[in-house]
Every structure is written in structure tokens, then in C-alpha cells.
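New to this. Comment on this protein:
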Amino acid sequence: MNGNPVYHWIGLAVSTALMLPVPVALLSGWVPASMRKRQAGLRLRAYGFLCCYALVLVNAIPRIADASYETVMACMLLGFGFIAAAAVLFLLAARKDAPARPADPLASRPG
């Protein structure tokens, strides 16, 4: 029912290599140059990325373990919760950064 576990292992390895370093680096204090002007919501963004990674985990691990249909569906529903939490965290980060950004850089120039 769950297909070949090798594909799920490959997906888990790729997502771990691509998704996990960014939030870990953000939480440890490293800030990329493109995000240095909006640091207010960095921790919220990092937790949002971790929620996206948790979605990968709760979907891949039951399939790798060849769990029953009900278990896979329950984990998939839990994954929707992680996506909703990530969306809320990303929106809160954007809201937290909004006062830090200039509204209109041209409006501050005289003349």
C-alpha cells in the first residue's frame, strides 16, 4: 500500500539535507544577508520551516514502516496541522517584520 520504501527514504534524505540546515542555522544565530533587515521574525520563520520539515517526517516515517492505512491517514491529517501551524508562524513573522520595514522609501525624500 505504501509503495517502495526506498523512495520514501530518498525523499526523507533529500528533504533533511535541504530543509533542516536553514532553521537550525537561524536558531543558532546565523542570519543570511538577504534577511538582515528583517530580523524581528527570524525565530518564527525558523519554527515555520521546522513545521514544514515535521510534515515530511510524519508523512514519510509511517510509509517507511509500512504502517496500516488508518495510521498513514492519521499521520497525513497531523501533517495538515503542521502546515497550518507553519502558515500561522510565517504570517506572524511577516506581521512582526512589518513595522521594521520602511513603508515607502521615496516618500522620505524631500522635494
Notes: The mean pLDDT is 87. The two ends are 69 Å apart (CA to CA). Helices lie at 5-19, 21-28, 42-64, 69-97.
